[in-house]
Write a structure and sequence with these properties.
Elements lengths: L35 H33 L2 H22 L2 H14 L3 H28 L1 H8 L4 H9 L3 H16 L3 H26 L3 H26 L10 H35 L2 H17 L1 H19 L3 H28 L1 H6 L9 H17 L2 H7 L3 H26 L1 H27 L9 H20 L6 H22 L3 H12 L4
Helix pairs in contact: 1-8, 1-12, 1-21, 2-4, 2-6, 2-7, 2-10, 2-11, 3-4, 3-7, 3-10, 3-12, 4-7, 5-6, 7-8, 7-9, 8-9, 10-11, 10-17, 10-18, 11-15, 12-13, 13-15, 13-19, 15-18, 16-17, 16-18, 17-18, 19-20
Length: 528
Protein backbone atom coordinates (compact mmCIF):
# COMPACT_ATOMS: atom_id res chain seq x y z
CA UNK A 1 0.00 0.00 0.00
CA UNK A 2 1.44 3.35 -1.01
CA UNK A 3 1.02 6.10 1.54
CA UNK A 4 1.65 9.59 0.22
CA UNK A 5 2.67 11.90 3.03
CA UNK A 6 1.39 14.86 1.02
CA UNK A 7 -2.04 13.77 2.21
CA UNK A 8 -1.07 14.19 5.85
CA UNK A 9 1.21 17.20 5.45
CA UNK A 10 0.06 20.23 7.46
CA UNK A 11 -1.38 22.99 5.21
CA UNK A 12 1.45 25.40 6.00
CA UNK A 13 3.97 22.92 4.52
CA UNK A 14 2.31 22.80 1.11
CA UNK A 15 3.84 24.99 -1.59
CA UNK A 16 1.09 26.26 -3.84
CA UNK A 17 1.74 26.74 -7.57
CA UNK A 18 1.58 30.52 -7.35
CA UNK A 19 4.27 30.47 -4.64
CA UNK A 20 6.78 28.53 -6.66
CA UNK A 21 8.01 31.42 -8.78
CA UNK A 22 9.10 34.80 -7.56
CA UNK A 23 10.68 36.10 -10.77
CA UNK A 24 7.49 36.74 -12.71
CA UNK A 25 7.91 33.76 -14.95
CA UNK A 26 5.01 31.34 -15.32
CA UNK A 27 5.08 27.61 -15.64
CA UNK A 28 8.86 27.33 -15.63
CA UNK A 29 11.03 25.55 -13.11
CA UNK A 30 14.60 24.39 -13.04
CA UNK A 31 15.06 21.19 -14.97
CA UNK A 32 15.91 18.29 -12.72
CA UNK A 33 18.80 17.04 -14.79
CA UNK A 34 20.37 20.51 -15.07
CA UNK A 35 19.96 21.70 -11.50
CA UNK A 36 22.52 21.21 -8.75
CA UNK A 37 19.78 22.19 -6.31
CA UNK A 38 17.72 19.22 -7.43
CA UNK A 39 20.74 16.93 -7.01
CA UNK A 40 21.23 18.21 -3.47
CA UNK A 41 17.52 17.90 -2.75
CA UNK A 42 17.29 14.34 -4.02
CA UNK A 43 20.34 13.16 -2.11
CA UNK A 44 19.49 15.31 0.87
CA UNK A 45 15.95 13.96 0.99
CA UNK A 46 17.26 10.41 1.10
CA UNK A 47 19.82 11.31 3.75
CA UNK A 48 17.28 13.16 5.89
CA UNK A 49 14.91 10.20 5.74
CA UNK A 50 17.73 7.84 6.80
CA UNK A 51 18.95 10.20 9.49
CA UNK A 52 15.50 10.39 11.04
CA UNK A 53 15.35 6.60 11.22
CA UNK A 54 18.89 6.37 12.63
CA UNK A 55 18.37 9.07 15.23
CA UNK A 56 15.00 7.60 16.18
CA UNK A 57 16.36 4.11 16.80
CA UNK A 58 19.49 5.48 18.49
CA UNK A 59 17.24 7.48 20.79
CA UNK A 60 15.26 4.38 21.71
CA UNK A 61 18.51 2.41 22.10
CA UNK A 62 19.94 4.99 24.52
CA UNK A 63 16.65 5.19 26.36
CA UNK A 64 16.75 1.40 26.85
CA UNK A 65 20.36 1.64 28.05
CA UNK A 66 19.69 4.40 30.55
CA UNK A 67 16.60 2.64 31.88
CA UNK A 68 18.24 -0.79 32.32
CA UNK A 69 21.91 -0.07 33.09
CA UNK A 70 23.40 1.88 35.96
CA UNK A 71 24.89 5.30 35.23
CA UNK A 72 28.40 3.86 35.57
CA UNK A 73 27.77 1.04 33.06
CA UNK A 74 26.27 3.51 30.59
CA UNK A 75 29.44 5.57 30.94
CA UNK A 76 31.62 2.51 30.26
CA UNK A 77 29.65 1.64 27.14
CA UNK A 78 29.86 5.12 25.64
CA UNK A 79 33.52 5.56 26.54
CA UNK A 80 34.32 2.20 24.93
CA UNK A 81 32.46 2.98 21.70
CA UNK A 82 34.14 6.39 21.58
CA UNK A 83 37.55 4.68 21.70
CA UNK A 84 36.47 2.45 18.80
CA UNK A 85 35.33 5.44 16.77
CA UNK A 86 38.68 7.14 17.28
CA UNK A 87 40.52 3.92 16.32
CA UNK A 88 38.43 3.69 13.13
CA UNK A 89 39.44 7.17 12.06
CA UNK A 90 43.11 6.41 12.68
CA UNK A 91 42.96 3.11 10.79
CA UNK A 92 41.31 4.70 7.74
CA UNK A 93 44.32 7.00 7.18
CA UNK A 94 42.07 9.59 5.55
CA UNK A 95 41.27 7.26 2.64
CA UNK A 96 37.52 7.79 3.05
CA UNK A 97 37.80 11.48 2.20
CA UNK A 98 40.36 10.68 -0.47
CA UNK A 99 37.69 8.52 -2.10
CA UNK A 100 35.14 11.31 -1.88
CA UNK A 101 37.46 13.68 -3.72
CA UNK A 102 39.09 11.52 -6.39
CA UNK A 103 36.36 8.94 -6.99
CA UNK A 104 33.89 11.83 -7.35
CA UNK A 105 36.08 13.41 -10.01
CA UNK A 106 36.35 10.05 -11.81
CA UNK A 107 32.58 9.65 -11.57
CA UNK A 108 32.14 13.05 -13.18
CA UNK A 109 34.16 11.68 -16.12
CA UNK A 110 32.12 8.42 -16.11
CA UNK A 111 35.39 6.49 -15.73
CA UNK A 112 34.29 3.33 -13.87
CA UNK A 113 37.73 1.74 -14.20
CA UNK A 114 39.34 4.69 -12.44
CA UNK A 115 36.69 4.74 -9.69
CA UNK A 116 37.31 1.04 -9.04
CA UNK A 117 41.06 1.67 -8.98
CA UNK A 118 40.71 4.17 -6.15
CA UNK A 119 38.40 1.82 -4.21
CA UNK A 120 40.80 -1.14 -4.56
CA UNK A 121 43.72 1.02 -3.44
CA UNK A 122 41.76 2.14 -0.37
CA UNK A 123 40.97 -1.45 0.60
CA UNK A 124 44.56 -2.64 0.14
CA UNK A 125 45.84 -0.01 2.56
CA UNK A 126 43.00 0.36 5.07
CA UNK A 127 42.28 -3.30 5.85
CA UNK A 128 45.81 -4.17 7.12
CA UNK A 129 45.82 -0.87 9.01
CA UNK A 130 42.51 -1.77 10.67
CA UNK A 131 43.76 -5.18 11.83
CA UNK A 132 46.89 -3.54 13.23
CA UNK A 133 44.84 -1.07 15.28
CA UNK A 134 42.56 -3.87 16.46
CA UNK A 135 45.55 -5.84 17.75
CA UNK A 136 47.10 -2.77 19.41
CA UNK A 137 43.83 -1.87 21.09
CA UNK A 138 43.44 -5.40 22.43
CA UNK A 139 47.06 -5.65 23.60
CA UNK A 140 47.22 -2.30 25.39
CA UNK A 141 43.71 -2.27 26.82
CA UNK A 142 44.96 -2.64 30.40
CA UNK A 143 47.45 0.19 30.07
CA UNK A 144 44.93 2.54 28.45
CA UNK A 145 42.22 1.72 30.99
CA UNK A 146 44.37 2.19 34.09
CA UNK A 147 46.80 4.90 33.03
CA UNK A 148 44.45 7.08 30.98
CA UNK A 149 40.95 6.51 32.36
CA UNK A 150 41.87 5.25 35.84
CA UNK A 151 39.20 2.58 35.50
CA UNK A 152 40.26 -1.10 35.21
CA UNK A 153 36.73 -2.08 34.12
CA UNK A 154 37.36 -0.32 30.78
CA UNK A 155 39.91 -2.99 29.82
CA UNK A 156 37.31 -5.71 29.28
CA UNK A 157 35.09 -3.35 27.28
CA UNK A 158 37.96 -2.37 24.99
CA UNK A 159 39.03 -5.98 24.40
CA UNK A 160 35.51 -7.00 23.42
CA UNK A 161 35.03 -4.06 21.07
CA UNK A 162 38.52 -4.22 19.52
CA UNK A 163 37.38 -6.86 17.02
CA UNK A 164 34.98 -4.37 15.42
CA UNK A 165 37.65 -2.01 14.04
CA UNK A 166 38.21 -3.90 10.72
CA UNK A 167 34.46 -4.18 10.15
CA UNK A 168 33.85 -0.47 10.76
CA UNK A 169 36.64 0.37 8.31
CA UNK A 170 35.15 -1.91 5.63
CA UNK A 171 31.74 -0.32 6.08
CA UNK A 172 33.16 3.19 5.82
CA UNK A 173 35.06 2.49 2.59
CA UNK A 174 31.96 0.90 1.05
CA UNK A 175 29.58 3.74 1.85
CA UNK A 176 32.06 6.48 0.90
CA UNK A 177 32.71 4.75 -2.42
CA UNK A 178 29.02 4.65 -3.31
CA UNK A 179 28.54 8.17 -1.97
CA UNK A 180 31.26 9.38 -4.35
CA UNK A 181 29.06 7.99 -7.13
CA UNK A 182 26.16 10.07 -5.73
CA UNK A 183 24.30 6.95 -4.56
CA UNK A 184 23.22 8.17 -1.12
CA UNK A 185 20.60 5.45 -0.68
CA UNK A 186 23.24 2.78 -0.05
CA UNK A 187 24.76 4.73 2.82
CA UNK A 188 21.29 5.22 4.25
CA UNK A 189 20.46 1.51 3.98
CA UNK A 190 23.71 0.49 5.69
CA UNK A 191 24.49 3.08 8.35
CA UNK A 192 21.17 4.80 8.96
CA UNK A 193 18.75 1.88 8.80
CA UNK A 194 20.41 -1.53 9.18
CA UNK A 195 23.00 -0.73 11.83
CA UNK A 196 20.77 1.06 14.40
CA UNK A 197 17.83 -1.31 13.90
CA UNK A 198 19.97 -4.44 14.32
CA UNK A 199 21.68 -2.92 17.36
CA UNK A 200 18.39 -2.06 19.01
CA UNK A 201 16.79 -5.42 18.18
CA UNK A 202 19.62 -7.45 19.69
CA UNK A 203 19.83 -5.17 22.71
CA UNK A 204 16.18 -5.94 23.38
CA UNK A 205 16.85 -9.69 23.07
CA UNK A 206 19.83 -9.60 25.43
CA UNK A 207 18.04 -7.42 27.98
CA UNK A 208 15.12 -9.85 27.94
CA UNK A 209 17.53 -12.74 28.56
CA UNK A 210 19.07 -10.86 31.47
CA UNK A 211 22.34 -9.48 30.14
CA UNK A 212 23.22 -5.85 30.74
CA UNK A 213 26.53 -4.29 29.68
CA UNK A 214 27.68 -7.47 27.93
CA UNK A 215 24.42 -7.60 26.01
CA UNK A 216 24.86 -3.99 24.85
CA UNK A 217 28.43 -4.69 23.70
CA UNK A 218 27.48 -7.86 21.79
CA UNK A 219 24.55 -6.01 20.17
CA UNK A 220 27.03 -3.35 19.03
CA UNK A 221 29.34 -6.00 17.53
CA UNK A 222 26.52 -7.78 15.66
CA UNK A 223 25.26 -4.50 14.18
CA UNK A 224 28.74 -3.47 13.00
CA UNK A 225 29.49 -6.85 11.41
CA UNK A 226 26.12 -7.04 9.63
CA UNK A 227 26.57 -3.50 8.28
CA UNK A 228 29.97 -4.35 6.81
CA UNK A 229 28.57 -7.30 4.85
CA UNK A 230 25.64 -5.24 3.62
CA UNK A 231 28.05 -2.47 2.60
CA UNK A 232 30.05 -4.95 0.53
CA UNK A 233 26.86 -6.17 -1.11
CA UNK A 234 25.85 -2.66 -2.22
CA UNK A 235 29.39 -1.83 -3.31
CA UNK A 236 29.35 -4.91 -5.53
CA UNK A 237 25.98 -3.83 -6.87
CA UNK A 238 27.29 -0.39 -7.89
CA UNK A 239 30.88 -1.41 -8.75
CA UNK A 240 30.88 -5.18 -9.43
CA UNK A 241 33.87 -7.02 -8.01
CA UNK A 242 34.42 -8.52 -11.45
CA UNK A 243 35.06 -5.05 -12.87
CA UNK A 244 38.75 -4.28 -13.22
CA UNK A 245 40.12 -1.14 -11.69
CA UNK A 246 43.22 0.72 -12.65
CA UNK A 247 44.83 4.04 -11.82
CA UNK A 248 48.27 5.32 -12.74
CA UNK A 249 51.16 5.58 -10.32
CA UNK A 250 50.85 9.36 -10.27
CA UNK A 251 47.13 9.07 -9.50
CA UNK A 252 47.92 6.71 -6.63
CA UNK A 253 50.45 9.24 -5.35
CA UNK A 254 47.98 12.14 -5.52
CA UNK A 255 45.31 10.00 -3.86
CA UNK A 256 47.58 8.97 -0.98
CA UNK A 257 49.05 12.44 -0.48
CA UNK A 258 45.60 13.97 -0.20
CA UNK A 259 44.40 11.15 2.08
CA UNK A 260 47.39 11.45 4.40
CA UNK A 261 46.80 15.17 4.78
CA UNK A 262 43.19 14.31 5.55
CA UNK A 263 44.12 11.82 8.27
CA UNK A 264 45.55 14.65 10.33
CA UNK A 265 42.43 16.72 9.77
CA UNK A 266 40.16 13.72 10.43
CA UNK A 267 41.97 12.81 13.65
CA UNK A 268 41.77 16.38 14.83
CA UNK A 269 38.07 16.67 13.92
CA UNK A 270 37.39 13.37 15.72
CA UNK A 271 39.31 14.57 18.75
CA UNK A 272 37.23 17.74 18.66
CA UNK A 273 34.11 15.56 18.87
CA UNK A 274 35.45 13.10 21.45
CA UNK A 275 38.12 14.97 23.42
CA UNK A 276 35.62 16.22 25.98
CA UNK A 277 34.44 12.65 26.64
CA UNK A 278 38.01 11.38 26.95
CA UNK A 279 38.98 14.20 29.34
CA UNK A 280 35.81 13.77 31.40
CA UNK A 281 36.81 10.11 31.72
CA UNK A 282 40.27 11.21 32.88
CA UNK A 283 39.28 13.95 35.35
CA UNK A 284 35.84 12.87 36.61
CA UNK A 285 34.07 9.68 37.61
CA UNK A 286 32.64 7.40 34.90
CA UNK A 287 29.05 8.43 35.74
CA UNK A 288 29.72 11.86 34.23
CA UNK A 289 30.63 10.26 30.91
CA UNK A 290 27.16 8.73 30.70
CA UNK A 291 25.37 12.02 31.46
CA UNK A 292 27.52 14.06 29.08
CA UNK A 293 27.24 11.57 26.23
CA UNK A 294 23.46 11.61 26.42
CA UNK A 295 23.45 15.42 26.10
CA UNK A 296 25.82 15.21 23.13
CA UNK A 297 23.59 12.68 21.38
CA UNK A 298 20.54 14.88 21.92
CA UNK A 299 22.33 17.81 20.29
CA UNK A 300 23.11 15.53 17.32
CA UNK A 301 19.38 15.65 16.50
CA UNK A 302 19.77 19.32 15.59
CA UNK A 303 22.67 18.63 13.24
CA UNK A 304 20.66 16.00 11.32
CA UNK A 305 20.02 18.27 8.34
CA UNK A 306 23.56 19.69 8.24
CA UNK A 307 25.18 16.26 8.01
CA UNK A 308 22.52 14.92 5.66
CA UNK A 309 23.12 17.64 3.09
CA UNK A 310 26.89 17.68 3.54
CA UNK A 311 26.94 14.01 2.49
CA UNK A 312 25.59 14.85 -0.96
CA UNK A 313 27.14 18.34 -1.08
CA UNK A 314 30.73 17.06 -0.72
CA UNK A 315 31.13 15.11 -4.01
CA UNK A 316 29.25 17.86 -5.86
CA UNK A 317 31.67 20.51 -4.56
CA UNK A 318 34.62 18.31 -5.51
CA UNK A 319 33.37 18.17 -9.11
CA UNK A 320 32.64 21.91 -9.34
CA UNK A 321 35.94 22.88 -7.71
CA UNK A 322 37.71 20.65 -10.22
CA UNK A 323 36.43 22.85 -13.06
CA UNK A 324 36.72 26.09 -11.08
CA UNK A 325 33.00 26.92 -11.12
CA UNK A 326 32.74 28.81 -7.84
CA UNK A 327 29.61 30.67 -8.88
CA UNK A 328 27.70 27.41 -8.84
CA UNK A 329 29.41 26.45 -5.58
CA UNK A 330 28.23 29.68 -3.97
CA UNK A 331 24.69 29.20 -5.26
CA UNK A 332 24.53 25.68 -3.84
CA UNK A 333 26.23 26.78 -0.62
CA UNK A 334 23.61 29.47 -0.02
CA UNK A 335 20.70 27.14 -0.75
CA UNK A 336 22.04 24.31 1.43
CA UNK A 337 22.88 26.54 4.41
CA UNK A 338 19.49 28.24 4.26
CA UNK A 339 17.67 24.91 4.23
CA UNK A 340 19.77 23.60 7.13
CA UNK A 341 18.91 26.66 9.21
CA UNK A 342 15.20 26.47 8.34
CA UNK A 343 14.93 22.98 9.81
CA UNK A 344 17.56 22.94 12.56
CA UNK A 345 16.91 26.31 14.20
CA UNK A 346 13.63 25.37 15.95
CA UNK A 347 15.21 22.12 17.18
CA UNK A 348 18.11 23.96 18.85
CA UNK A 349 15.84 26.62 20.33
CA UNK A 350 13.62 23.94 21.89
CA UNK A 351 16.73 22.38 23.46
CA UNK A 352 17.70 25.76 24.90
CA UNK A 353 14.21 26.47 26.27
CA UNK A 354 13.40 23.01 27.67
CA UNK A 355 16.65 21.17 28.55
CA UNK A 356 15.38 19.60 31.79
CA UNK A 357 12.22 18.21 30.22
CA UNK A 358 14.21 16.62 27.39
CA UNK A 359 16.74 14.98 29.71
CA UNK A 360 14.05 13.80 32.13
CA UNK A 361 13.00 11.29 29.46
CA UNK A 362 16.22 9.38 30.20
CA UNK A 363 15.79 9.55 33.99
CA UNK A 364 16.34 11.99 36.85
CA UNK A 365 20.07 11.24 37.00
CA UNK A 366 20.52 12.79 33.55
CA UNK A 367 18.88 16.14 34.38
CA UNK A 368 22.30 17.17 35.71
CA UNK A 369 23.29 17.70 32.08
CA UNK A 370 20.71 20.46 31.47
CA UNK A 371 23.34 23.22 31.49
CA UNK A 372 25.51 21.23 29.08
CA UNK A 373 22.61 20.78 26.69
CA UNK A 374 21.96 24.53 26.51
CA UNK A 375 25.64 25.35 25.91
CA UNK A 376 26.18 22.62 23.30
CA UNK A 377 22.96 23.50 21.46
CA UNK A 378 24.03 27.15 21.19
CA UNK A 379 27.42 26.14 19.79
CA UNK A 380 25.97 23.74 17.24
CA UNK A 381 23.44 26.34 16.16
CA UNK A 382 26.35 28.52 15.01
CA UNK A 383 27.93 25.46 13.38
CA UNK A 384 24.78 24.83 11.33
CA UNK A 385 24.56 28.51 10.38
CA UNK A 386 27.99 28.38 8.71
CA UNK A 387 27.09 25.30 6.66
CA UNK A 388 29.68 23.18 4.87
CA UNK A 389 32.47 25.75 5.12
CA UNK A 390 35.14 23.15 5.94
CA UNK A 391 34.00 21.00 2.98
CA UNK A 392 34.59 23.92 0.60
CA UNK A 393 38.13 24.41 1.90
CA UNK A 394 38.98 20.70 1.79
CA UNK A 395 37.50 19.99 -1.62
CA UNK A 396 38.86 23.17 -3.26
CA UNK A 397 42.53 22.52 -2.70
CA UNK A 398 42.85 24.36 0.62
CA UNK A 399 42.92 21.27 2.82
CA UNK A 400 46.28 22.25 4.34
CA UNK A 401 44.83 25.58 5.49
CA UNK A 402 41.84 23.72 6.95
CA UNK A 403 44.28 21.43 8.73
CA UNK A 404 46.04 24.38 10.34
CA UNK A 405 42.65 25.70 11.45
CA UNK A 406 41.84 22.34 13.01
CA UNK A 407 45.19 22.13 14.81
CA UNK A 408 44.74 25.59 16.33
CA UNK A 409 41.17 24.79 17.35
CA UNK A 410 42.21 21.48 18.91
CA UNK A 411 44.95 23.14 20.96
CA UNK A 412 42.43 25.70 22.21
CA UNK A 413 39.96 22.92 23.04
CA UNK A 414 42.59 20.96 25.00
CA UNK A 415 43.59 24.04 27.00
CA UNK A 416 39.99 24.98 27.78
CA UNK A 417 39.05 21.42 28.76
CA UNK A 418 42.14 21.10 30.95
CA UNK A 419 41.24 24.20 32.96
CA UNK A 420 37.44 24.06 32.88
CA UNK A 421 36.59 20.38 33.50
CA UNK A 422 38.30 20.07 36.93
CA UNK A 423 36.64 23.32 38.05
CA UNK A 424 33.20 23.21 36.41
CA UNK A 425 32.75 19.53 35.58
CA UNK A 426 30.77 18.56 32.49
CA UNK A 427 29.52 22.14 32.02
CA UNK A 428 33.16 23.17 31.61
CA UNK A 429 33.58 20.55 28.89
CA UNK A 430 30.51 21.92 27.09
CA UNK A 431 31.88 25.48 27.22
CA UNK A 432 35.25 24.32 25.87
CA UNK A 433 33.68 22.40 22.99
CA UNK A 434 31.18 25.09 21.98
CA UNK A 435 33.79 27.86 22.14
CA UNK A 436 36.18 25.88 19.94
CA UNK A 437 33.48 24.95 17.41
CA UNK A 438 32.23 28.54 17.07
CA UNK A 439 35.71 30.01 16.62
CA UNK A 440 36.75 27.34 14.11
CA UNK A 441 33.70 27.91 11.92
CA UNK A 442 33.92 31.69 12.03
CA UNK A 443 37.60 31.58 11.03
CA UNK A 444 36.86 29.22 8.12
CA UNK A 445 33.93 31.37 7.04
CA UNK A 446 36.23 34.40 6.80
CA UNK A 447 38.85 32.38 4.91
CA UNK A 448 36.35 31.08 2.34
CA UNK A 449 35.13 34.64 1.74
CA UNK A 450 38.58 36.15 1.23
CA UNK A 451 40.00 33.23 -0.80
CA UNK A 452 37.04 32.36 -3.04
CA UNK A 453 34.83 35.43 -2.63
CA UNK A 454 31.81 33.39 -1.56
CA UNK A 455 29.59 33.23 1.52
CA UNK A 456 26.34 31.43 2.41
CA UNK A 457 24.14 34.40 3.31
CA UNK A 458 21.53 36.62 1.68
CA UNK A 459 18.54 38.60 2.89
CA UNK A 460 16.22 35.57 2.78
CA UNK A 461 18.51 33.95 5.37
CA UNK A 462 17.07 36.37 7.93
CA UNK A 463 13.53 34.96 7.63
CA UNK A 464 13.98 31.80 9.74
CA UNK A 465 16.31 33.63 12.14
CA UNK A 466 13.75 36.38 12.74
CA UNK A 467 10.82 33.98 13.16
CA UNK A 468 12.69 31.55 15.39
CA UNK A 469 14.15 34.18 17.71
CA UNK A 470 10.91 36.19 17.84
CA UNK A 471 9.07 33.11 19.13
CA UNK A 472 11.59 32.76 21.96
CA UNK A 473 9.98 35.69 23.80
CA UNK A 474 6.43 34.32 24.28
CA UNK A 475 7.59 30.75 24.76
CA UNK A 476 10.37 31.90 27.07
CA UNK A 477 7.82 33.74 29.19
CA UNK A 478 5.66 30.63 29.19
CA UNK A 479 8.66 28.59 30.30
CA UNK A 480 9.35 31.08 33.10
CA UNK A 481 5.76 30.91 34.32
CA UNK A 482 6.02 27.11 34.40
CA UNK A 483 9.32 27.10 36.28
CA UNK A 484 8.51 23.61 37.57
CA UNK A 485 9.19 20.63 35.35
CA UNK A 486 6.49 20.08 32.76
CA UNK A 487 4.82 16.71 32.35
CA UNK A 488 5.66 14.82 29.17
CA UNK A 489 2.24 15.48 27.54
CA UNK A 490 2.46 19.20 28.35
CA UNK A 491 6.02 19.37 27.01
CA UNK A 492 5.07 17.62 23.77
CA UNK A 493 2.08 19.93 23.33
CA UNK A 494 4.20 23.07 23.78
CA UNK A 495 6.98 22.04 21.38
CA UNK A 496 4.36 20.98 18.80
CA UNK A 497 2.80 24.46 19.05
CA UNK A 498 6.22 26.11 18.75
CA UNK A 499 7.18 24.10 15.67
CA UNK A 500 3.79 24.56 14.04
CA UNK A 501 3.78 28.34 14.54
CA UNK A 502 7.36 28.57 13.27
CA UNK A 503 6.61 26.83 9.96
CA UNK A 504 3.27 28.62 9.62
CA UNK A 505 4.97 32.03 9.73
CA UNK A 506 7.71 30.77 7.43
CA UNK A 507 5.07 29.76 4.88
CA UNK A 508 3.26 33.10 5.19
CA UNK A 509 6.45 35.02 4.47
CA UNK A 510 6.96 32.90 1.36
CA UNK A 511 9.40 30.42 -0.14
CA UNK A 512 11.87 31.05 -2.93
CA UNK A 513 11.84 28.96 -6.11
CA UNK A 514 14.89 26.95 -5.04
CA UNK A 515 13.45 26.32 -1.57
CA UNK A 516 10.21 25.14 -3.14
CA UNK A 517 12.09 22.64 -5.29
CA UNK A 518 13.98 21.33 -2.28
CA UNK A 519 10.80 20.99 -0.21
CA UNK A 520 9.16 19.08 -3.06
CA UNK A 521 12.06 16.66 -3.47
CA UNK A 522 12.43 16.00 0.24
CA UNK A 523 8.73 15.35 0.65
CA UNK A 524 8.82 12.97 -2.30
CA UNK A 525 11.32 10.81 -0.39
CA UNK A 526 8.76 10.37 2.38
CA UNK A 527 6.14 8.86 0.06
CA UNK A 528 6.21 5.18 1.00
Amino acid sequence: MKINLWLVTPPFFIVKPEMKLRTGQTGTRLKDQDSDIVVIAKGGGIAVFGSIIRIGFNFIFRLALTRTLSLGLVGLYFLGTTVIEFSRILALLGLDYGLLKYASIAHGKSDVCQIKGYVITAFKIAIPSAFLFSILLFSFSDTISVQLFHNPDMSKVMRILAITVPFTVITTICVFSTQACKQMQYRVYVQDITEPIVRFAFLGIFIFIGYQLMGALVAYIISVVSSSFLGLYFLNKKLPFSTKGRITRSQVGDFLRFSLTQISSRVIDTLMRTLDIFMIGCFLIIDNVGVYNITVQIVVVGSLFLHAFINIFTPLISELAGIGDFKRIEKNYKAMTKLVIVFSLPVYLIMILFPREILMVFGKDYVAGAGCLVILAAGQMVNSATGAVDVILNMSGKHVLSLYDSIGTLILNIILNFFLIPRYGISGAAVATSTSVVLANLIRLIQVYFIFGIHPYNLSFLKPLFIGTALIVPFGVLRYLFSFELSLPSFLFIITCYTGIYFLFLKLIGLSEEESIIFDKIKAKFSL
